[in-house]
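Hi C.,

You asked whether I'd gotten around to modeling the 292-residue construct. I have! Everything is below, sequence then structure, no commentary in between.
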Amino acid sequence: MKSEIVNVTPQKAAEWLSLNVENRPLRRTVVEGLKAAFARGEYIQTHQGIAFSAQGNLLDGQHRLTAISEMRGVSFPMLVSYGVDDHAFQVMDIGLKRSHADALRIDDRRVVEVARLIAVICSAKRQAVTPLMLVPIIDAIQPTHDALISFCASSVKAWSSAAVRVAAVTSMLSGGDVDYIKTTYRALVLSDFDSMPPVARALYRAYVNGTVSASDRNDMVARCLVVFNPKKAANSKVQIKDNSEAIAFVRSQFLHLIEPDAAAPKKMTAKESAVKSVLRGNSSRNRTPALA
């Protein structure tokens, strides 16, 4: 077996893909995720690359090569190995996959969970979320998330979930009443019914009764954005007919962190403006600056 570094162009990738005769089924979601990651400049050369068998068949790298073949004007230096034993395919990519926290070497997995859910919400094309995609999100949310967790470090299945924390962090960063949000969050996590505003009690009851599911993360984010809004504190119900407006609000706060082209703010439609007005708290006390 021998190896060398080769600058892989779209033309070279397409040529090598013609040798892909006995590989696993191609997953388009993986390909689209790689293309997006390459376009964001996330590619880093490692010891992992492209592998060909002694017979010249492609053993490893079909997703990377497919992604590159569908791009234009790019070239990526990759380690290419030739003469690899055919049986090596049976043991490729079967090790324990690193989590995003492992890859980023971050001890606090909770902030990574929140960043990952934000990235998923912002990825309209459902592209794969990469560790490097999370870095700017983590940088933006970590001080606020740390403050939330410091105020209430307890964990329970539903109320300290990533979806609830996404709603809390988004509300705080978009100018919400920090004290109200943290106090309401802690009341939910500790099941402190007496300290909950009526709107939080309503959501808590709905969850206990089974009419709200914590597994529907977008729905939970939308409902908690209402709960963390002091303007809605006296509400006796949390009614969400369509969570798309709330999800669009989260995207408006964070999309520019993973898609630089979205950094320039666009003029809001009347509907978007109304959503933002509804979701924001009206207290001017203890507010953090809104995201740029």
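If it helps when you're writing up: DSSP finds twelve helices and four strands in the chain.

Thanks,
B.
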